[in-house]
Amino acid sequence: MKDLIETIVKPLVDFPEDIQVSIREENRAVTYLLSVNKNDMGKVIGKQGRIAKAIRTVVYAAGTSQEKKIFLEIK
Q1: pLDDT of residue 65
Q2: Where do the coiled-coil regions begin and end (predicted)?
Q3: HSE-CB of 31 using CA atoms within 13 angstroms
Q4: Element (H, E) at 20
Q5: Are 1 and 63 spatial neighbours (Cβ–Cβ below 8 Å)?
Q6: What domains are there in the chain, each with its CATH number?
Q7: DSSP state of 70
C-alpha cells in the first residue's frame, strides 16, 4: 500500500524525494501518513480537495481485501 501511495503522488509533486509515507496501526485500523514538501501540498490536495479525495478513493479501494479499515492522512 505504501508503494501505491508513492506511485500515485510522485508524478504530482516537484520534490518527489521529500515524499514520506509512514504507517500507524491500531486495533482494527491502519492509518497511512503522507508527508510532502510544503510547496507541493497544494498539488497533492488539489482544488477543493479533489485530488486528495481521488487518492483516498484509490487507497481505500485497494485496501478492501484487508480485514482492517484504511485511512490516509496528508500532512
Answers
A1: 83
A2: none
A3: 8
A4: strand 20-25
A5: yes
A6: 2-74 (3.30.300.20)
A7: E
Instruction: State the pLDDT at residue 71.
Output: 94
Residue-wise burial string across 5-36, b where 16 or more C-beta atoms lie within 10 A, e elsewhere: beebbeeebeeeeebebeeeeeeeebebebeb
3-state secondary structure of 53: helix
Q: In this structure, are strands 69-74 and 29-35 parallel, antiparallel, or unpaired? A: parallel
Predicted pLDDT at 11: 97
Name 32's Cβ contacts closer than 8 Å, sequence gap at least 6: 1, 2, 5, 21, 22, 23, 24, 59, 70, 71, 72, 73
Q: Give CA–CA dist 57/18, Å, rounded.
A: 23
